[in-house]
Amino acid sequence: MGKKHKRLFRNILSRFVLLLVPVIFFTFCQEKEKSDETNLLLLGAIVSANSGPSTVCQTNADGTVDTTMPTIKKGTFALCRPSNGAVRHYRIEGLKIIGGHTAVSLYVGLPENYSAEVNRNSTLAAGQFGMNFYSGSGTGGFVPGYAYANFGPNESNIKNLTSNGNSTAPPAPTVAGTSLINFIEQEVDLCFDLTAAAPPRLTVWVSGKNTANCKTRTNLTTGNALFNEVTWTGGDPALATGFSFIGLSANSGISFSKIVTSTQLAAP
């Protein structure tokens, strides 16, 4: 090969290399970007898997539906519900609340897209129901732990589940009353019926009280209930059809194993 041809070949090779370098660089950048995106997606999947869903639903053979929470945390969460029919019976298993001013609130008859916070001071519309479990401060006349139910916006409908049956607006129940439900010193299984009547009948049982066993249900009657309420005032209608939500006021001090919902009343 002559000098002229060698020089021409070197010039062509140099130009080819100069053209090839940007292509290689561009390809490398694209592959790195794809790799970075893949790593981010994998990281997101790992984080999602570790954090878990806020609630988990499980339908049982008897038609009841379980709501469980992998991690108890402060917030408002929708309860799972059966696919057909309105929920008429609720069961909270292993409920225990400790610590001052800590509460669990279960509200019924809310819209599906409900986004506000559910807490023991939430205002209810006509036909909506709330059940609250509160661990008080133990000072200033508060009962250390008590439960109360309310139906609709009328404050006269607030019913403290205490031994004397008196009703006063929260946060101060009747001091003379003793809480019928001790979820402070021990775990309790509690269940209640809400009928379709106008106004609804509320019937509450606690396992171990008056021979009741919420998990069995076959022995639950109005006669061995811990609490019966059929006298809601103010002309409130039947229980609103809608969704049920639970509100947890803290990340700690609250524990329960699951909440079970059913379309069947325990005591028709």
From TrEMBL:
<keyword id="KW-1133">Transmembrane helix</keyword>
<keyword id="KW-0472">Membrane</keyword>
<keyword id="KW-0812">Transmembrane</keyword>
<feature type="transmembrane region" description="Helical">
    <location>
        <begin position="12"/>
        <end position="28"/>
    </location>
</feature>
<protein>
    <recommendedName>
        <fullName>Lipoprotein</fullName>
    </recommendedName>
</protein>
